[in-house]
Amino acid sequence: MIGRIAGIILHRGMDEVLIDVRGVGYIVHVSSRTASTLPPVGEACALYTELVVREDLLQLFGFPTLIEKEWHKLLISVQGIGAKAALAILGTLGPDGVSRALALGDWNAIKAAPGVGPKLAQRVVMELKDKAPTVMAMGGALTVDTAPSDEVIEAKPKTPKRAPAPAATPKTNFTAEALSALTNLGYSPSDAAAAVAKASEQPEATDTAKLIRTALRLLAPKD
């Protein structure tokens, strides 16, 4: 399993990047959102990767964070959603948008991704709504050492000698902490996830405690 690629960018496309790692070029497929954030050709980058193996094809898919990689793995578990379709969804919504869409059952948001029709979007929401809280709860647990990697890149004299580590998920993850608190209070993971997703859109939900209070108001029985 190739879990991480770090090296010098040789080529950037709309949905892929060619990375030189000590003289070996790896083609890594990325979402349009990730592609737009990569440094220019000739500079160092690093991505977490997932190797997809088929009978006649090996493909690497790259992600700037581990939480985004987990969302991709969850999306491709749905029949009809391949690795590239999952990238399209992530590229359109971002990991936070995917989280909200699944928690709220918003298949219209999923349908906005290129190549995803309404029936497939509905299937994604139907199959993953109850599974989404598991990934949401990972949150800050998916952190890594953000120190530079030890590999030395020799591609060009002016390029950095150390490839930066991918951006880590923040250690303080309000969504994950609020979700954990609500489930500990006895709410079902799906109800808690939906309330947290709605509450996170409110401007006053600026920390864990405020997010929990806002979510609790949403979960309170209506008269």
UniProtKB/TrEMBL annotation:
Localization per Swiss-Prot or TrEMBL: Cytoplasm
Residue ranges of the region described as Domain III: 172-223
Domain annotation Helix-hairpin-helix DNA-binding motif class: ranges: 73-92, 108-127
CDD domains: UBA_RuvA_C
Domain I: annotated span: 1-64
Tree of life domain: Bacteria
GO cellular component: cytoplasm; Holliday junction helicase complex; Holliday junction resolvase complex
Gene Ontology BP terms: DNA recombination; DNA repair
GO molecular function terms attached to this record: ATP binding; four-way junction DNA binding; four-way junction helicase activity
UniProt keyword terms in alphabetical order: ATP-binding, Cytoplasm, DNA damage, DNA recombination, DNA repair, DNA-binding, Helicase, Hydrolase, Nucleotide-binding
SMART domains xrefs: HhH1
Xref: NCBIfam families: ruvA
Subunit architecture: Homotetramer. Forms an RuvA(8)-RuvB(12)-Holliday junction (HJ) complex. HJ DNA is sandwiched between 2 RuvA tetramers; dsDNA enters through RuvA and exits via RuvB. An RuvB hexamer assembles on each DNA strand where it exits the tetramer. Each RuvB hexamer is contacted by two RuvA subunits (via domain III) on 2 adjacent RuvB subunits; this complex drives branch migration. In the full resolvosome a probable DNA-RuvA(4)-RuvB(12)-RuvC(2) complex forms which resolves the HJ.
HAMAP family reported for this sequence: DNA_HJ_migration_RuvA
Family: Belongs to the RuvA family.
Protein role: The RuvA-RuvB-RuvC complex processes Holliday junction (HJ) DNA during genetic recombination and DNA repair, while the RuvA-RuvB complex plays an important role in the rescue of blocked DNA replication forks via replication fork reversal (RFR). RuvA specifically binds to HJ cruciform DNA, conferring on it an open structure. The RuvB hexamer acts as an ATP-dependent pump, pulling dsDNA into and through the RuvAB complex. HJ branch migration allows RuvC to scan DNA until it finds its consensus sequence, where it cleaves and resolves the cruciform DNA.
Domain observations: Has three domains with a flexible linker between the domains II and III and assumes an 'L' shape. Domain III is highly mobile and contacts RuvB.
Protein name, UniProt field: Holliday junction branch migration complex subunit RuvA
Organism field: Rhodobacter aestuarii
